[in-house]
Amino acid sequence: MIIEKVILENYLCYYGKKIIELSNGLNIILGENGEGKTKFYEAIEWLFQGNNQNLAVLVSKKAIHEHQVGEEFKVSVSVAFKLGSEKYIISKSFLNKKLKDGSIEPYNYSVEGIEESSNGERSQVDGKVLLDQIFPVQIRRYSMFKGESELDIFNNDDALINLINHFSDAKYFDKYAIRSTYLREQSDRAVESSVKLDKKNIQVYKGLEEEISALERKRHGLVTLTNLNEAEIQRLEQSIQEASKYVQNASDLEIYNKRIKKLEDEIARLMSLIDEGYTTKLFDENWINIYFEQYLSEYSKKVSLLSSKRRKEQSDYDTEIGIRLGEKKAKADLLNNAIPLPINVPSKLHMEEMLKDEICKVCNRDAKKGSEAYEFMYSRLKEYIDSQLTTDPSDEMQAQSLFHFDYTSKLVQLSSSHEDNLKTVRNVKEEMRDLFEFNDQRKNEILDLQQKLEAEIENRNNILGNSKLAADKLSDVLLNYTSWQNELKSCNTDHLNNINQLKNLDSELKSKKEEKNKIDLKSAKSFLLKTRDILTDIAKIFHDTKELKFEEFIQGLEKKANIFFKKINVNSFTGKIVITRKQYGNKNALTINLYEDDKPFFTPNQALETSKHIAVLFAISEIASEAHEELYPMIFDAPISSFGENKAGEFLNLIYETQNQKILLIKDFIINDKKTDKLTVKKEFDKVKRHKAFMISLKRPFDSESLKTIDSQFISL
Amino acid sequence: MESLFSKWKTKIPSYSEVHKELFNSLSSKYGSEGEKKLSLGKHFSTNYELYLYAFYLGLYNDEFVPITKQEKKTNFSYEIMNWGSKSTSLRKDFTTIQEHVFIATFAKCNVDVLELDKGNVKEDDIVRELIYTLESYTNGGLILIREELETNPNYFFQPSSFLQKLLKCKAASSKKSSIGGLTVD
Amino acid sequence: MNKKDKIIQQFLAHDLLITKYKLKKNQLPNSLKAAKDSEVPIIKAIALMVDALESGQVVTDVTLRTLINNYLNEAAI
């Protein structure tokens, strides 16, 4: 069956009468958004399933404007069909009268059918009945789609049953399963009643019956649980698969983050080791005295000069005055009248040591007891000891001493103590050098590490740049991914447990039923038993055969869908469509998934999803055709918006080959020149294979604010 | 035995008011260490540290510049004997530096201690002379610092700047000692 | 082959008839008519059901049950 013509009269944006002649095969209607494309689809939709509600809104505003008050005009949508050699027209229409206030009053709503036989004879028939005959509703349901989202027909649970009911002889077998189950149940009851008549058995029998019921309830609950668990497993697998796109990135990110942290920590550690407190070290480490030595020697020179001068003056003084204050002041004559050393040099300890060893350790000469050297040292030591014994404050002595104070000694002391410490001052140079070296080395190490750090950060940025998720989302993904994996593990374990439990339950049920059977066998009338046996078997046969038919249908559908899918696959997707049936209690739900390498592929983009759905629809259309031994048209409004123009062209060329009539409304291949407000068809469209093509556009000029200027028209291409 | 040193270190040396700003910017009047020093941005924790640095700078460079009579003198009220004593764990005690400074100024001074020993000269006179020497070298050092800042305002921003400046002195070349590995700017 | 024949053929293709009832493939009837004449109770019972449910008329549960039980109970004895 094909649609030959569509006639629109004063319907919405179509003013006056518009006749659109379609051909068999592929009809492409191009239309920008807002030019009347979807209204065309809706017109046909209204014809097929609309009613007489809200008719006033369907009237073309321009038509209202153009007519006088009191004038009558018609609004109608008609479709001309060709079925075999017969032609039919179905029209839906209503009349309008324009009122004084400018509004209209619709009336005379009617649906007409006209049959035109091959010899040109026309006869009127009931429009509604005719429509259901030509284009049955169960076929229409799978032939007309508005937008990509409507293509997913298996969104509801009844879809499968509907399909089967319409297109498969599996539908016949449904009733057998139901009926035979009923018969078996009744037969069971007959047996039970018969058994119960024997009073002996009532107790045991009732008990068993109850146990069996309880087990069956338990079983039912377990089956539901198992189904829910399976749904959860699928959900988790889907989440995991979606996340696994990111996880590789996420775990790489982890690795880089760890490396980066390690590098940063090491750099920080090295930084903390660097000590550049040079100014402070000037004082704390005495670096400031680096050149002190020369000043110390100046000082020492001065001070020793001072000391010897003082001793000389004292010595001269003493010699002059000729103080003879006993042996306390006696000075040993030195050779050559040289200036004696200060009285406490060498020290008392050194003197005692030398006397003991009988050696002068300064010049390394013998000083044997009794020798001149020995006596000299001995008397010196005595002088010293005596000088320490008294502090005679005798004024006479004081008044006659040359020096009243002794600042000099302290100054000398200072000199010698610092001479002893010169070693540390001399080390300053090296200390400084060591510190500078140390710091430089650390700085070089840090530079190295910083280079490495930059490289790792760049790696990390590459990952983040490639992934659509921000860094913290990636971390979330990693967290989720791990927890989903764990959940999946436990769900799978649960699943196994459920299966096991089910097995156990089933075997328990079996044994209970056998027990019951034994009693039945003993007590029931044997013919009842035999009947029950046969009916049980029949029920099984019917049930199994029905299941088989269902499966056959689904597999057939899947096979056909994959043939179409291969043809129209515009994404180079290498997988296939897999249709699975899930039974939840009495419901049969169908899920259509894409599989790649035997694994479910959960994240197709919209274009792939659309290809999948369209393939299934074409498969259904083919099944419908086989079932009814007739081809039916398919009407799609904007089914491939997500494809993009190139893919759209490819797709159209592919479906050009299919057998039935296709009417596609799309918005690709049009350029709207905003400056001239002219719509033109792109050159690329010339390459697209089709049997007929149109462009819908509003008659220009028009005022989008004022609906009475709106009038769409069809331009043949 | 009397000690010139003990008397000397009870003094508070002065500096020319001209250099007041240097003290304000480079050192911390009431002393600061660690975080406080960092946050105040001071190179020298205390005024006397800057004073000591300037003295050594002047000494090593032989910049003996007495403070002229017209210049007003000021000080930071801290006796020499307290210099270098640290009450915080962040720093080491360096009170021995007092002796070093004493020795260096004495070396450069021409005082007759024997007259002091004989009692012909008062202790205070000698000490005055020593302090004068100290102040003059310090003044020289401060001028050097100022001159550097004028030519090169950013000179002291490097952590080793003060050290480097000290090492570049005349005393260094005279000793013909090279400190290898140190970069002299 | 009409619809009824197709249907009963599908049912009779089930394993059970061979495994449990020890029937051979060539013993299975091809058409509804032949199945109705079968002496194997299960085959005839199936045939009766198909006949009733494909008759195009409404068959109530009671009617169906009576029909089948009638036959089977008799056949069992």
Q: Which residues of chain A form runs of ≥5 with pLDDT under 50?
A: 326-330
CATH H-level superfamily title of the domain at 2-135 and 632-716 in chain A:
P-loop containing nucleotide triphosphate hydrolases
What is the gyration radius of chain B calculated from CA atoms? 17 Å
CATH architecture term of the domain at 2-135 and 632-716 in chain A: 3-Layer(aba) Sandwich
Per DSSP, the total helix count of chain B is 9
Radius of gyration of chain A: 57 Å
Biggest β-sheet description of chain A? 6 strands, antiparallel
End-to-end CA span of chain A: 24 Å
Task: Please give the structural blueprint.
The complex is a heterotrimer of chains A (717), B (185) and C (77).
Chain A: E1 2-11, E2 14-21, E3 26-31, H1 37-49, H2 61-66, E4 72-83, E5 86-98, E6 104-116, E7 122-126, H3 127-134, H4 137-140, E8 144-146, H5 159-167, H6 170-197, H7 202-273, H8 278-284, H9 292-321, H10 326-329, H11 348-357, E9 359-360, E10 365-366, H12 372-389, H13 395-399, H14 408-420, H15 422-466, H16 471-523, H17 526-568, E11 576-584, E12 587-596, E13 599-601, H18 606-628, E14 634-637, H19 644-655, E15 662-666, E16 670-673, E17 678-681, E18 692-698, E19 712-716
Parallel strand pairs in A: 3-15, 3-18, 8-14, 14-15
Antiparallel strand pairs in A: 1-2, 1-4, 4-5, 5-6, 6-7, 9-10, 11-12, 12-13, 16-17, 18-19
Chain B: H1 4-8, E1 15-16, H2 20-26, H3 34-40, H4 47-60, E2 73-74, H5 97-108, H6 113-118, H7 123-151, H8 161-167, H9 170-175
Antiparallel strand pairs in B: 1-2
Helix pairs in contact in B: 4-7, 5-7
Chain C: H1 3-12, H2 16-19, H3 32-36, H4 41-53, H5 61-76
Helix pairs in contact in C: 1-4, 4-5
